[in-house]
Design a protein that fits this description.
729 residues, alpha/beta, Rossmann fold, 4 domains, 6-stranded parallel beta sheet, binds shikimate-3-phosphate
Length: 729
């Protein structure tokens, strides 16, 4: 791309740019300019082969260079520009790597009176606590963000060349304006550094002599890691971005003041909410980061063992979502118990908070929703981020289509690749205005309208999400909305609408609704999720000498396909203490070990066990003979392609599992059923938990990668599974 690059300042950043530019063949020749004071560093750079030559005279350094990169601390950029001015060349491209951009543009304006069009300001968001050329790394910028802040006057060719240069280096490019860059960086980088420096300063001065550092634990070390950064550089950055930083420091002081107030006045609920909000916000932030940057969790399961004991698994995910949606639109206060405190349900809760609903909790499964009435939601300030949750996105698209405001629904990588046309097509037929991405995926841009019309819709796929979406839209549509399904799917929406006194007419396989009703607040007791219980229904069946009782599980007949299928395979499951709570059947399930046998799974059971197939495949691997699943192509568009991902993993574990277009054929083995190995859950919670259960019948350890999404439905899984006897770390 360039013949000669001149780097001004070969420290960590400048040195790393030189190394990667050479490795990727982006230039022929690299020189550096530095001051006498930095001579040893320049000599080291040459000796290490990072640069070809260095100069203490700037004229010689920049002569014939077609690219000059200023990689000094931001505080000296003005001096450097003054030195460069007499030799400024219109044909050369100039850029920098400073952490603040307003100060760099100001410096250029003060030296040149206006920003030269061939000077393109840039900022690689990468660094390390170490400095100097010795610390430079060839992959410092790989997969890291690189922000370019061009001005209106920037030369388009120069800008394109700088974009290409950083793309070739492997960075992810963002283009921003200068002020926005400085505001964002003040919050995400400069303030955290100041907090780390000031905490160590405070505690160091106070207690260093005593034993603060001796006893400082991981939290202190994690929090203060960045206080090991270069003080000169950070002094420069803070001075250069003073205006933005001071604003944030004031807000931070206010926040600390609030926390002090809560402590002094024993306001434990408020404090708990502050911490809970922060924890959830951080999780959403991690989910939004590219996979490589987010925390990665690996499960390690030792082979064998048995499951014994009595547990209550967390609340039903489908009902938890619906309790927030209907409770928010109700008149009055709804109390929910047994609410699922996991990312998917929290995404829905957060979305309604963002639309002006006051919601307290979850606190030990209790949530209080101060309903705003059917027409009381307000426009959210930001797009609604729904993480991994398909139910949130599909149900909300119906509920929001008929509002008086617009919304944007976004999600993580998996959710952004799942099909949304199944809801947007019938909604559009009702008069909704929803734009999807090409291919019918999220983000969804919903323009609210008061002109929805009822529809008589025969669902082409068996989907409770589609049915519920249309019923929720029907609450805001003129005339009747009727949804007919060809195979039964879970009916929690219909039941819960009933619980909230909203008229919904169910006849045979059709449900109808109109806009005449209103929702009256009620109390909801969410039973345990049979989809979470399923892991232990299978686990206790396949592991010898097991006996597990799962308390208070929702056994709505539209959800018990897993019990029916396991019983057909010979499992011993007893349904005890059956009762109806809030319109939903609930029971305790006792399961003991049994030798399963392979079966052809009846297709009519597929929608009734749709989320349980990953773990049923594990059951099939341990059964005697062949198990065949057909009519389940929906599994290919769940949180992952569950047919392919399970077949891949089972094959790695030595199981004969053949994927088909709409199911799987598994040749089970009663002895040495499953081997060991490393499998990938592809960020799908149910895959991660299913392979963990496989460990009970494995002959060697199973390592499962990418398990953080277990938090979307069952954060307690590792604890409860271990408590029952699974050897999981
Ligand atoms: C759900 C319906 C099912 C299920 C999902 C939850 C719901 O999806 O897989 O986990 O709460 O309505 P489909 O409707 O797409 O089958």
């Amino acid at each position: 791309m360039f013949n000669k690059i001149c780097i001004i300042g070969v420290g960590l950043i400048g040195g790393s740019i030189a190394k990667v530019a050479r490795q990727k063949g982006l230039c022929n020749y690299i020189v550096a300019f530095g001051r006498q004071k930095g001579l040893t560093n320049l000599q080291a750079a040459k000796k290490l082969g990072v640069i070809d030559e260095f100069y203490l005279d700037i004229e010689l350094a920049v002569k014939d260079a077609d690219c000059v990169i200023i990689a000094t601390p931001v505080g000296v950029i003005e001096q450097i520009l003054k030195k460069l001015k007499p030799f400024w060349n219109e044909q050369t491209i100039y850029t920098d790597a400073g952490s603040t951009k307003g100060s760099v543009v100001d410096a250029a304006r003060s030296v040149f009176s206006e920003m030269p069009s061939n000077f393109i300001p840039a900022h690689p968001i990468a660094g390390a606590e170490k400095s100097g050329v010795e610390a430079s790394q060839v992959d410092l910028f790989k997969n890291k963000r690189l922000i370019i802040t061009p001005l209106k006057s920037s030369c388009p060719d120069a800008l394109n060349k700088i974009i290409k240069f950083w793309e070739k280096i492997g960075s992810n490019i963002s283009i921003m304006d200068v002020d926005h860059h400085d505001a964002v960086l003040a919050a995400t980088s400069h303030l955290p550094h100041i907090l780390a420096f000031s905490l160590v300063d405070l505690l160091g001065k106070k207690n260093e002599q005593v034993d603060i550092f001796k006893y400082a634990a991981g939290g202190f070390k994690d929090f203060t890691r960045i206080a090991s950064s270069d003080p000169t550089m950070w002094l420069d950055i803070c001075m250069a971005n003073k205006k933005e930083i001071v604003l944030l420091l004031q807000q931070m002081q206010e926040e600390l003041g609030n926390i002090e107030h809560m402590l002094v006045n024993n306001e434990s609920q408020q404090l708990f909410e502050t911490f809970t909000y922060a924890k959830q916000a951080r999780q959403r932030f991690l989910n939004q980061l590219d996979n490589h940057m987010s925390q990665s969790i690996t499960f390690n399961v030792q082979p064998g063992g048995k499951l014994r004991g009595e547990i209550r698994v967390p609340g039903d995910k489908s009902m938890s979502h619906r309790s927030i949606m209907l409770g928010s639109l109700a008149e009055g206060t709804t109390h929910v118990t047994g609410f699922l405190n996991a990312d998917d349900a929290l995404a829905t809760l957060q979305a309604f908070k963002a639309m002006g609903v006051e919601i307290e909790g979850p606190n030990n499964g209790e949530v209080t929703i101060h309903g705003v009435g059917k027409h009381g939601l307000i426009e959210p300030k930001e797009p609604l981020y729904l993480g991994n949750s398909g139910t949130s996105m599909r149900l909300l698209s119906g509920l929001l289509a008929g509002q008086s405001f617009n919304t944007i629904l976004t999600g993580d990588k998996s959710l952004s690749s799942r099909p949304m046309k199944r809801v947007t097509d019938p909604l559009t037929a009702m008069g909704a205005k929803i734009e999807t991405q090409e291919g019918g995926t999220a983000p969804l841009h919903i323009t609210g309208t008061s002109e929805l019309k009822g529809i008589d819709y025969l669902m082409p796929i068996a989907s409770a999400q589609v049915k519920s979406c249309l019923l929720l839209a029907g609450m805001f549509a003129e005339g009747e909305t009727k949804v007919t399904e060809s195979a039964s799917t879970r009916d929690h929406t219909e039941r819960m609408l009933n619980g909230f006194s909203y008229p919904v007419n169910v006849e045979g396989n059709a449900a109808s609704i109109n806009s005449d009703g209103k929702l009256v607040a009620t109390d909801i007791d969410v039973p345990s999720d049979i989809s979470s219980a399923a892991f232990f229904l299978v686990g206790a069946s396949i592991a010898q000498d097991s006996d597990v009782t799962l308390k208070h599980v929702g056994v709505n007949p539209t959800r018990t396909g897993v019990i029916d299928i396991l019983r057909l395979m010979g499992a011993k499951i007893e349904v005890l203490n059956e009762k109806t709570i809030g319109g939903e059947p609930v029971a305790d399930l006792r399961v003991v070990s049994s030798q399963l046998k392979g079966i052809d799974i009846p297709e009519k059971l597929v929608p009734l066990a749709i989320d349980e197939f990953p773990v049923l495949f594990v059951a099939a691997a341990c059964a005697e003979g062949q198990t065949r699943l057909t009519g389940a192509k929906e599994l290919r568009v769940k949180e992952s392609d569950r047919i392919q991902v399970m077949a891949d993993g089972l094959q790695i574990l030595g199981v004969d599992a053949q994927p088909t277009k709409d199911g799987m054929v598994i040749q089970g083995k009663p002895i040495d059923s499953i081997g060991g190995g490393e499998v990938d859950s592809h960020g799908d919670h149910r895959i991660a938990m299913s392979f963990s259960i496989a460990g009970l019948r494995a002959t060697a350890p199973i390592i499962i990668k990418d398990c953080e999404n277990v938090n979307t439905s069952f954060p307690e899984f590792p604890t409860l599974a271990t408590q029952l006897g699974l050897n999981l770390k």
